[in-house]
């Protein structure tokens, strides 16, 4: 069976799982659809492989060898096929553009769903299916020269289209209520894309009252009906929003963009804003009283001195 046929089968079975009344099949829906997307990518790598070795580019390990004519050619080594990281690298060097941001988001949602899933989270599944649909549709038409409706079949296409429409309409309505709130801080506004229900993990979150005062914003989950306050999810939101930056900074030996607040203890002190976005705590001492260097959050305990001056001062006092 060809890879493209496998890919389409997997997506179609995923959509049937999704439509099933048995909600135990939800996890299997997202797994099948995710597997289908990876197979579409592998099909593209096969199409890009040389004519005499159609599976070359889906081999994880490729090495140069000399053929009978003493020319350098490449051959696949072993049976292992490409993982996601290698697909990304090969697409990059072969100029195949994929919306990896969306792909990674779906992957993360899928991993989270496997941990959090309850029968109360149908919208979290709907979100994954809706977002996957866009990736599938674009890849089929942009990179595999296929008419997505024809390839997926009318039933599967219609089901995906409906999920996508329902999801985007609900998402838009929720977004409008969230956008109407004054979120006070830029970093919080940026973090809102990670706002999710703390019960069912859906992103369909509504703000209930326009005149709520930050951070006590009353929220309502459109998926499971759970009511909660922004204050309860602010740490998670900030953490999700800045996780990428934390990782990049750690690799460059830099500092974390946020830390635990001295006042409320939440991990919501944002260095760039110089303030805790949960309790409004600002640093009491901003410059060292001796050398006038800017002070960090940890140096607040020295009551006005930087750690170097504090050290010198303690030494003098001990003498
Ligand atoms: Zn919920
Ligand atoms: Zn605080
Ligand atoms: Zn100093």
What would the keywords be for this entry?
319 residues; 3 domains; 3-stranded antiparallel beta sheet; 8 strands; 50% helix; 11% strand; binds zinc ion
Written description of the protein model:
The structure is a single chain. The chain is mostly helical. The protein has three domains: 3-174, no CATH class; 182-281, no CATH class; 283-319, no CATH class. It has helices spanning 3-19, 26-48, 84-93, 100-116, 122-143, 148-152, 154-179, 186-191, 230-251, 307-318; strands spanning 59-66, 72-81, 205-207, 218-221, 227-229, 258-259, 269-270, 275-276. It has a three-stranded antiparallel β-sheet with strand order 3-4-5. A three-stranded antiparallel β-sheet has the order 6-7-8, with no helix packed on it. A two-stranded antiparallel ribbon has the order 1-2. Helix 5 (122-143) packs across helix 7. The relative contact order is 0.07. It binds zinc ion (3 copies). Residues 197, 199-200, 202, 221, 223-224, 226 line the site of one zinc ion. The site of one zinc ion has 8 residues, from helix 10.
């Amino acid at each position: 069976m060809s890879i493209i046929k496998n890919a389409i089968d997997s997506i179609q079975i995923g959509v049937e799982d999704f439509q099933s009344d048995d909600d135990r099949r939800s996890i299997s829906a997202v797994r099948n659809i995710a597997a289908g997307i990876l197979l579409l990518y592998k099909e593209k790598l096969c199409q890009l492989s040389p004519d005499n070795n159609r599976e070359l580019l889906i081999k994880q390990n490729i090495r140069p060898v000399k053929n009978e004519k003493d020319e350098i050619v490449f051959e696949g080594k072993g049976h292992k096929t490409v993982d996601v990281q290698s697909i990304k690298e090969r697409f990059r060097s072969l100029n195949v553009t994929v919306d990896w941001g969306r792909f990674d988001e779906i992957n993360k949602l899928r991993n989270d769903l496997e941990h959090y899933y309850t029968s109360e989270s149908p919208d979290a599944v709907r979100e994954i299916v809706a977002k996957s649909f866009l990736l599938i549709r674009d890849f089929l038409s942009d990179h595999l020269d296929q008419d997505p409706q024809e390839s997926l079949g009318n039933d599967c296409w219609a089901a995906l289209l409906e999920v996508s429409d329902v999801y985007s309409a609900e998402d838009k309505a929720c977004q409008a209520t969230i956008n109407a709130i004054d979120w006070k801080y830029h970093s919080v506004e940026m973090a809102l894309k990670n706002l999710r229900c703390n019960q069912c993990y859906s992103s369909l979150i509504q703000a209930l009252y326009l005149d709520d005062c930050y951070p006590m914003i009353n929220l309502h989950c459109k998926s499971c009906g759970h009511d909660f306050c922004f204050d309860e999810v602010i740490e998670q939101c900030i953490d999700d929003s800045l996780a990428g930056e934390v990782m990049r900074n750690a690799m460059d030996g830099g500092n974390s963009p946020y830390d635990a607040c001295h006042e409320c203890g939440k991990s919501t002190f944002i260095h760039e804003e110089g303030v805790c976005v949960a309790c409004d705590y600002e640093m009491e001492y901003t410059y060292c009283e001796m050398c006038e260097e800017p002070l960090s959050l940890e140096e607040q305990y020295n009551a006005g001195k930087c750690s170097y001056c504090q050290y010198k001062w303690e030494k003098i006092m001990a003498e």
